[in-house]
Amino acid sequence: MTTDGRLMTNTRPTPGHAVMSAMLRSRRGMVLSSFAGSMVLLASILVLMEGERTPKVGGRSLAPMAVTSSGVPLEAITTPPAGLDDQRWTRIVVHHSRSRHGDAAKLARQHQDMGLASLGYHFVIGNGRGMADGELHVAERWLRQQPGAHVAGPNSLAYNRDSIGVCLVGDGRQESFGRGQIDRLVATVATLAQTLDIPSSQILLHQDIVGVDDPGPLFPRERFYQRLAEAGVR
Q1: What's the CA angle centered on 178, arms 169 and 192, to 5 degrees?
Q2: Which whole-number Å values give the CA distances from 200 to 70, 91, 189, 228, in the listed order?
Q3: Eight-class DSSP state of 55
Q4: Closest Cα to residue 176, out of 217, 208, 223, 115?
Q5: Phi/psi of residue 95, nearest 5 degrees
Q6: Which end of the chain is more exposed for a tag (fewer CB within 10 A), N or C?
Q7: Which tens digits make up the pLDDT trace of 2-58?
Q8: Which helix (H) or strand (E) element contains residue 93?
Q9: In angstroms, how far is CA 36 from the centroid of its own chain?
Q10: CATH code that applies to domain 55-230
């Protein structure tokens, strides 16, 4: 006991304490090293999936173009500001957002949280909950003619380089898609296919490429392809 009445403690480390401290330091170093390696690997995968980073103007992304369902001017699709890169695009891939409501801004935030610079799709079509039913959002990746970041799986790099990503807001695992939304999808995909000479065999659902329910079992597959054929897509 000290002169002021406090108990003295033995601060000299025992052999057991020294061994335990060494083990903890070693384990901590292994954990940190493993974590750092995992983060480097994840970042590398995201960069590869995204391809070219979205250019910035004045520190902000250029605002994407939103066109209402009352009528989409074809030039918004066929003559983007960057000029149509008709040598790049050979496929179209249809997705759903896996959520009953949402909009392009919400999807963009989700993709940015995953490490992407911007929305990974080229087009988003609303379902009346967050965006008007059939509202078409033309994303900056299309305006700039940049590769997408929307296809998963072992062949994702190839698909993301040359495929156009079209996302339907909604969850095709739980509910059907609206009429206005499907009408806009058919019109958009048919316009792209005819402009870029993309055959119907290269108009794909994401679930045709990789084992995911996207756009889900409630997506009207047969009617979709039938309507594309009626629109002149072969």
Answers
A1: 65
A2: 26, 9, 10, 8
A3: P
A4: 217
A5: -130, 170
A6: N
A7: 444 444 444 444 444 443 444 434 444 443 344 334 333 333 333 444 444 433 322
A8: strand 91-96
A9: 25
A10: 3.40.80.10
